[in-house]
Amino acid sequence: MEVTPDEELDRVTVSMLRHADERCPRRLQHEFTSGRKLSALSEASFDVTNRVVADITTWHRGQVDGDPERVAFPDPDDLEPEQRAFYRALVRGYLELFPPVAAEVGDCGWATDIAELDVRLVGPVGIPLVHTDGIHQLRMLRAGRGSTLLDDVDLRFALLRAAEWTRTTLQLVAFDPLELQSVEYDIDIAGRLEDAQAWLAARVALIRARGDKHDTRAGADCRFCTCIPGCPQIARTT
Ligand code: SF4
């Protein structure tokens, strides 16, 4: 099926894929059917890390085809003081972990349409770099994830999102700039794509089966839930 740019597909994020089994059905349904619209509330906790990834990407681009002197990290003075400190710590850690490198910046976009399933995979996957030896690398910022910087869900999501960018080997480098640690995987895209597609189909089927706007489960999911307005369970308790 061909998907036109304006067509709204059901939206799937890495968080939905990971938590589909236990997420509140009403919230799951709401997030799944909210199309391309990204909620500022649900994305709030990722504001700083997403901005750091975007600024690092711009910085790399400047090293290659811009004037490196002019491409510095902008002072994030619109952020709260705690967020500014977090931003600076992430950038400082990145520059310590990765020495300067002459690599082109690739583009994995913000979303990937999976027409066979009528869904759009939404969310950044990392900093895409093509090194001079041709290696396609995704650097994935993972702050505060403890010893597991990358799990199977991250890996399959990245593979599915990056499959249009490179069809050979994808090098994933997950890094924590606060702990100054990183881990590296070489992924054979062609060899693992089928497995990732089958996994995605099963997870999307689960989301479709569990999502229900009439079924509410109050709990941890209520935090950052964008459908609190009108939620009968919350309205009952206020
Ligand atoms: S507010 Fe809580 S119970 Fe209501 S939809 Fe959101 S997660 Fe579910």
Q: How many distinct beta strands?
A: 8
Task: Indicate the mean pLDDT.
Answer: 87
The structure class reads: alpha/beta
> Biggest sheet: strands side by side, in what order?
2-5-6-7-8
The total count of helices amounts to 8
Rg over alpha carbons = 19 Å
Distinct small molecules: iron/sulfur cluster
Order of secondary-structure elements: EHHHHHEEEEEHEEHH
Please report the distance between the alpha carbons of the first and last residues. Answer: 46 Å
Strand content: 15-25%
Shape: globular
Percent range for helical residues?
25-40%
Description:
- It is a single chain.
- The termini are far apart.
- The longest helix is centred in the last third of the chain and has 22 residues, at 189-210.
- Strand 5 and strand 6 form a beta hairpin.
- Helix 4 crosses helix 5 (81-97).
- The strands form two sheets. The chain has a five-stranded mixed beta sheet, with helices on both faces. Strands 1-4-3 form a three-stranded mixed beta sheet.
- The chain is α/β, with parallel strands linked by helices and 238 residues long.
- Mean pLDDT is 87; it is low at 1-6 and 38-42.
- It contains eight helices and eight strands; from the N terminus they run E-H-H-H-H-H-E-E-E-E-E-H-E-E-H-H.
- Bound molecules: iron/sulfur cluster.
- Residues 24, 26-27, 216-218, 221-222, 225, 227-228, 231, 233-234 line the site of iron/sulfur cluster (SF4).
